[in-house]
Amino acid sequence: MQEYAEFVKRVHKKTGIDLSLYKEAQMKRRLTSLRDRRGYQTFSSYFEAISSDTSLFDELLDRMTINVSEFYRNRQRFDVLENKVIPHLLQGKKRIKVWSAACSTGEEPYTLAMILSQFLPLSQIEIMASDIDENAMERARKGIYPERSLKEVPAHIKQKFFRREGAFYHVSSEIKRCVTFKKHNLLADEYEQGCDLVVCRNVMIYFTEEAKNTIYQKFSRSLNRGGIFFVGSTEQIFSPNKFQFEVFDTFFYQKG
Ligand SMILES: C[S@@+](CC[C@H](N)C(=O)[O-])C[C@H]1O[C@@H](n2cnc3c(N)ncnc32)[C@H](O)[C@@H]1O
To answer: Relative to the CA of 185, which ligand 1 atom is closest?
Structure first.
């Protein structure tokens, strides 16, 4: 068997992450460059090394998961969420069930809580947030961010929900209380049901076409009729009707 394929198998066994469902060229390039940088010539010697050195292992996990995020990422889309999607979802309802999947370090679910706070009392906002990467979610729970993560945050929101301490911004505890973080692997775990809004952005780009199709199918089942699926700004779905979706706005799909 090809050396990389064997590595993928062993990583799957060790971490539960099946790299064969991620686009191969891109992932292999990322991992080969890390392996080379650490001085291993083969994937099998690199695997031996990560098995006995937790810092090398954590570094590999970090490399596999790609955690970049920011508040109000692609701000215009969040403006559509605020001005069109949320008012639509809240018609005749006082609560909505929201899931931020592949939430990384928390900027996305906290953004959702900040936006929802303009419509509902904070005590009625519950957002489920998940990611495969526990380390990223540990940072999310702390809620402390550098200034560059906040560059798209509207001034009134920044003033209301962040406290500056030195070079860092702390998310207010009332916003933190709205979000529950839980580990979830999109490729292997059960999906939440009965959602009104599912947000899954900037992770589908890493998956194979086959894996994407399965994931869209599962998200579609997660949503209530009329619920909305919000995707990343490079992640348009080409045949939404295959998954019982209709275009609601650019990068927003409604479950039929
Ligand atoms: C680039 S971040 C996206 C963060 C946020 N959604 C955003 O758009 O800013 C991609 C996230 O996907 C997560 N991820 C990768 N594979 C995953 C999987 N199989 N299941 C769940 N999360 C996964 C990574 O851990 C990472 O935190």
So the answer is: 20
